[in-house]
Hints:
By secondary structure, the chain is α+β, with helices and mostly antiparallel strands.
Amino acid sequence: MTSINFNITRERCPGCDSNVLSHHKVIICECCDTIYHAKCSEQSFKFDHVKQMWHCSQCFAFKSQRYNPFNSIIYDKYDPNTVERDEDMETISNILKDCRSYNMTNFNRLSKNILNHNKPFISIVFNNIDGNASNFDSFITDMSQYDEKFAVIALAETNIDEENKDLYKIDGYSSEYNSKTDGKKKGSGLGVYIDNKYQYSRIEKLCKCSDNLETLFVEITNTEVPQIAGVVYRPPSGDIQDALAELDVLMKFLPSNNVALTGDFNVDLLAQGRNIAEFEQTIYSNNLIPLISIATHAKPGCNESLIDNILVNSTERVLGSGILESKISHHNPIFCFISGNIKESSNNAKLKPKYDYCESNIESFLNDIGRDIYQSNFSYDEEGFEKFVETVHEKIELNFKVDSTAGFQSKRNRLMNPWITSALIKSVFTKGFHYKRWKASCTKINPLGEETLY
């Protein structure tokens, strides 16, 4: 006689650890499909307003979030036919869906793929560098590994003043800096590097530094359409309400298109709350759309957050965006490609900066002008004054003028800084290798990774 086993495995509710029976009201996690009693859902479930989904507390704690509020606008999962098609919303939603993390190989493939489709672009990268003194060399070494030479490199938390910017040059780039806040040794300061093939001007009225908000803007002028690039840093120690008010006023001065505003806003778009809602209201009311939708900042033992972003007001020009896996601080570099090309010009315009007022050039100028003034007999009349002015002008051209065809040569090289050796560069690569090994060892069960890799 064949025996029949009537012991059927029942579903157990993780909320109360008791069986789920057929007559019980239940709710199912839309992420892992685990069944809970409806009466247990109040304690065990959370609603993800970003994805418009219910998650159990375990999935909510460990899920990889993506910011895309436009997805719920263009698509209703309960009744897809009720929502009218909106091409603009769909474009924005697709940009946020396509945002991803890139290693060096995949990033190089992406940039080549865009060029292969005959789409010239302006590339922008941003990173909260957490101090030029400690991380600038590593950052530049990392960036040099990529095939793409970024048109604009924006930095936050440089922790240096504007007069020290010549200590941190990049070959083939011009730079603009904002000094750090008075009295702060760290957690302040902005910098922007512009490829020498672009002509640009600093927009002084948009550059500011307060306890609540720091901003730096430039306008690239020799492209088919002028492109404004800005970098923002909101110190977490400042008042966020005042910062958002200052940001709103600043955005009112921006043109209605061709703006790319990047930075560390210290507002986590993957979280929820009043400050996040007010930040969204500020940027969307000024027609600025975020391009980054995944976490950009992570510390061991802490939840990942999306506090760095790139805001644009011409989404039709966006060709790609994402984050780079290589990082030298707790922040991943973020980037975007915007369609654009250098306009053809019959005259060979001189690129900025035209003059280099470094300390050695100033010393040489003072020596030359001092010697000529004492050796020359300038008459005390209009002719003598004109001769004096002409002499000063000649010395300025001689000592400060830069050869535009040669570009700037960085002082951060082995001749000026002999400690930058091949062994040091190799150690930077080794550090990146071990970091990737440790990152791969982090799991839900062991979020801190293997201790042997610390």
